[in-house]
Amino acid sequence: MRKLKIGITCYPTVGGSGVVATELGKMLAKEGHEIHFITSSIPFRLEKFYSNIHFHEVEVNQYSVFRYPPYDLTLASKMAEIAKREDLDLLHVHYAVPHAICAYLAKQMVGEHLKIVTTLHGTDITVLGYDPSLSELIKFGIEQSDSVTAVSNSLIEQTKDLLDTDKEIDCVYNFIDEDVYQRKSTCDLRKEYGISREDKVIIHVSNYRSVKRVPDVVRTFHRVREQMPSKLLLVGDGPELTVACRLTKELGIEDDVLFLGKQDNIAELFSISDLKLLLSEKESFGLVLLEAMACGVPVIGTNIGGIPEVIDEGRTGYICEVGNLDDITTKALSILQDDELHAKMSKEAIHHVHRQFNSSKIVEEYLTVYHKTLGIK
Ligand code: GMT
Asked: Engineered SS bond to 293: which of 33, 173, 349, 360, CB 3.0-4.6 Å?
C-alpha cells in the first residue's frame, strides 16, 4: 500500500486530543508514512527523534497594527506552504474550530487534490456548538472537510443534533500507547507519598475545568474515607483546583488529599491506585479512563457523552448518573471493600482496553478513512 504524506494539526499542549493526535502521528510514522506536525509548539509527547516525523512551527508575529495576533491565518498559510512544498496528500486536523477552517483556507490556496480529514474531540461541539455566534462556522468547517471522524458515537449524535448536519461522520475511538500505559512495579512510590498498606487509593486526573465536577470527586472521597482508610490523588492543574483545595479544608480531609499537580509519569500513579473517578457532566470520550484501565485500575464514570462507550458496566467499573453521590459512593465502596471483585475488574479492565481500543486496530481505522478520502482502493 502507498505510503502517505500527512500533515497533522492539533493543540500541542497537554490534553487528550493532543495526545491522541501525537500518538497517531508516531504510529503512522512507524508504519513508514511521512508525518508533518504543523502546530504552534512541538507536541509534548513527541519526545524522541523520528526520521520521518517533521515539525513545522506556526509562529505568530505580533505586528502593532494587529490588535489580535492572527494565529488562524498564520496557521492556514503555514499549512498551504508545507502542503505545497512537501506535496502532502492530506491534512488531518483535530478540532473543527479553528483547525478545519484553517485547513479549508489552505486547500483553497493549494488546490482540490489536498484532502482534509477532521477529527471532532468534543469541546468544539459540546461547548462551542451552543454558542450561536460560532455554530455556523463549526458546521461549515465540518461540511467542508472531505472526511470527518469523531471519538465516540455519542459525539456523532450530538454533532448532528446540535448543528443540524447530515454530513457522514465515522466513529474512530481513542487509543493509548500500550507500552506506556501498563501496570508498573512501584514499590517505593506509596511510601514516598505517605500512603500506608491499609489505605485504598482513589485517583482523579483532569484539567480541572468546571465540566469535570471535581467537587463531586472530593465529596465522594470524603464519604468513602468515613468507611475505610483512604487517600485521594488529585493529578493535573486548572481553574477549579482552588475550589477543590478549599473544599478539602472545609471537610477536614486535607491530610488525606494529595495535590500532585501536572505529572508526566501517570502510569506509575495509576499503578498505586485502586479506583479512578471521572464524574464529568460533559465528556465526549474520557481518555483518562482508558489510561487508568490499561494500568489495571477499575473506573467509575458518569452516564454522559462517550463514557458509557468506554466503560464496560459491571465488568471494568460502573456508570453512575451525574451528581448521584449516594450511588457513586456505594459503587466505589463495593469495589474497594471486595478484593476479589477488585482483582476481577482490574484484570478485565486491561483486557477491555487491549480488545476494544487496541492501538493497531484504531490506527488501521484511521488509515481506512485516509484511503477512502484519497480514493485509494
Ligand atoms: O477534556 C478536556 O477539556 C480536554 C479535551 C481535549 O482537547 O483534549 O478533551 C476532549 O478530547 C479528548 C480526546 O478525544 C476526550 O477524551 C475528552 O473526553 C474530550 N473532552 C470533553 O469532551 C469535555
From this structure: 349
Cα angle for residues 243, 246, 251 (degrees, 5° grid): 120
Q: Which of 159, 283, 293 to probe ligand 1 with, by most ligand atoms within 8 A of CB? A: 283
Asked if 289 and 267 sit in the same domain, the reply is yes
Provide the domain count of the chain. 2
CATH value at residue 251: 3.40.50.2000
Residue span of the structural domain in which 226 resides: 189-356
Is there an atom of ligand 1 within 6 Å of 301 CB?
Answer: no
Ligand 1 atom index nearest CA of 11: 7
- Which atom of ligand 1 approaches the CA of 151 most closely? 14
Q: Which of 203, 125, 136, 201 is nearest to 169 (CA)?
A: 125
Q: Which amino acid is located at 155 in the chain?
A: L
121 in ligand 1 pocket by Cβ < 6 Å? yes
> pTM of this prediction?
0.96
Which residue's CA lies nearest to atom 12 of ligand 1?
16
Query: pLDDT, tens digit, for every residue of 154-207?
Result: 999 999 999 999 999 999 999 999 999 999 987 789 999 999 999 999 999 999
DSSP codes, 124-141: IIIIGGG-HHHHHHHHHH
How many A from CA of 168 to the centre of ligand 1? 21
- Give Cα 326 distance to the centre of its chain: 28
Shared-domain flag, residues 330 and 208: yes
Using CA positions, which residue lies closest to atom 21 of ligand 1?
283
What pLDDT is stored for residue 14 in this prediction?
Answer: 66
Within this chain, do residues 66 and 164 fall inside the same structural domain, yes or no? yes
pLDDT digits (tens, 9 = 90+) for 270-324: 999 999 999 999 999 999 999 999 999 999 999 999 999 999 999 999 999 999 9
How far is ligand 1, taken at its centre, from the CA of residue 265, in Å?
20
Judge if 231 and 311 occupy the same domain. Answer: yes
Question: Are 242 and 302 in the same domain?
Answer: yes
Give the residue from 72, 73, 15, 78 showing the smallest Cα distance to 43.
15
**Mean pLDDT score of the chain, rounded to an integer?**
95
ipTM > 0.90 for the complex:
yes
What is the rounded average pLDDT of the residues 257-281?
A: 96
Do residues 150 and 248 share a domain? Answer: no
